[in-house]
Design a protein that fits this description.
The chain has about 375 residues and is an alpha+beta fold. The chain contains eight helices and 18 strands. The chain folds into two domains: about 1-170, 2-Layer Sandwich (D-amino Acid Aminotransferase, Chain A, domain 1); about 180-345, Alpha-Beta Barrel (D-amino Acid Aminotransferase, Chain A, domain 2), CATH 3.20.10.10. The longest helix has 15 residues, at about 335-350. The protein is globular and about 60 Å long. The two termini are about 15 Å apart. The structure holds 2-OXO-4-methylpentanoic acid. The site of 2-OXO-4-methylpentanoic acid has 6 residues, from loops.
């Protein structure tokens, strides 16, 4: 990969002298453990973003006083690039991801970034690290853009300096279950987000706060927590690593975006497809009691999650206050399967992209 030249980019590129790609077992990829040769970086200081740079992925120096270490002022995105053929890679809905990235920045008092630099950074990184894009079914190059407060500052206020980086990682399935049904539990003890808080931003701290409840759920034998609203502990919100959908009769019900739920890009895609296929689609508040009622009346046909990392993930069991909803625990439901096939079909270029969701990159 030495002496790689990338044309038509205003981004300065410092290529690696030796690739680390031989360290990767592409037949046994786990999620987020291996990182491609190059990374993007841009620094905000003195009221403006500086020059964009692509350089080798490597450790970097910060001081112990770096603001993000103390106050968690940081946002991120999760996106994927898919190997379509030997000449083409697809990025899924980068425009929508970038809008959400900027929305998260605004909420967290972080300066916004422009789309042109974002897309140019992605294209350049992907061309440089094209050999890192896995080819096997179910794999992708996960893209993690993030921005953190990088001032040396112990005062509890917004930083004046920020570091924007993009790293990429060849990944397999997010859950150990793969595309098999996962199990969820509610918790009476904790909440994920409150209205007016940071729940609809992809803010680093939202995730840190969910680790203890997730650890407890895991110890009790569940894959993840199904979060209920913080005020009444009644309405279903999301899973933290994915949004949630319910097929009740012939209606697809998804919790409305009330301000404490992350507006998922895959969620948006699932809802668009369901509408296109003529299903009734309702984005509304849905209580856990209504869900159990639908289950007891045999109206609850399927439950599944959606997310960039999780793609479409069937849910086989929901536990709430000693009671269980048990759906098919051995295989995905028909509708979840249909969504999975269509979305991954569009992502890998096997199905027609009628919505224009895919950004193609020639490699
Ligand atoms: C994603 O789906 O990309 C996420 O960001 C979820 C998780 C890996 C934190």
């Amino acid at each position: 990969m030495m002496n790689e030249t990338i044309e038509n980019t205003r981004i300065t590129v410092q290529p690696v002298t030796k690739s680390r790609i031989n360290e990767v077992d592409f037949d046994n990829l786990v999620f987020g453990r291996k990182f491609s040769d190059h990374m993007f970086e841009m620094v905000y200081a003195d009221g403006k973003w500086g020059e964009p740079l692509i350089k080798p992925y490597e450790p970097f120096q910060i001081t112990p006083a770096t603001n993000v270490l103390h106050y968690g002022q940081a946002v991120f995105e999760g996106m994927k690039a898919f190997y379509a053929d030997e000449n083409t890679v697809h990025i899924f809905r980068p425009d929508v991801h970038h809008q959400r990235f900027n929305n998260s920045c605004r909420r967290m008092c972080i300066p916004e970034t422009d789309f042109e630099t974002f897309i140019e950074a992605l294209e350049t990184l992907i061309k440089l690290d094209r050999k890192w894009i896995p080819k096997k079914a179910g794999t992708a190059l996960y893209i993690r853009p993030f921005i953190f407060a990088s001032d040396d500052l112990l005062a509890a206020r917004s930083s004046d300096k920020f570091t924007y980086q993009i790293i990429t990682s060849p990944v397999g399935a997010y859950y150990a279950e793969g595309f098999n049904p996962v199990s969820l539990t509610t918790t009476d003890e904790y909440v994920r987000a409150v209205e007016g808080g940071t729940g609809e931003a992809k803010a680093a701290g939202n995730y840190a706060g969910s680790f203890l409840p997730a650890k407890k759920a895991k110890a009790d034998g569940y894959t993840q927590v199904l979060w209920l609203d913080a005020k009444e502990h009644k309405y279903i919100e999301e899973v933290g690593t994915m949004n949630i959908h319910f097929l009740i009769g012939d209606t697809l019900v998804s919790p409305a975006l009330t301000g404490s739920i992350l507006p998922g890009v895959t969620r948006r895609s699932v809802l668009a497809l369901a509408k296109e296929w003529g299903l009734n689609v309702e984005e509304r508040r849905i209580s856990i009691d209504e869900l159990f009622e639908a289950y007891e009346n045999r109206d609850l046909k399927e439950v599944f999650g959606s997310g960039t990392a999780a793609v479409v993930s069937p849910v086989g069991l929901i536990h709430h206050q000693g009671k269980n909803i048990e759906l098919d625990r051995d295989k995905p439901g028909e509708f979840a399967q249909k969504c999975f096939d269509e979305i991954t079909g569009i992502q890998y270029g096997r199905r027609e992209d009628t919505f224009g969701w895919v950004h193609k990159i020639g490699i």
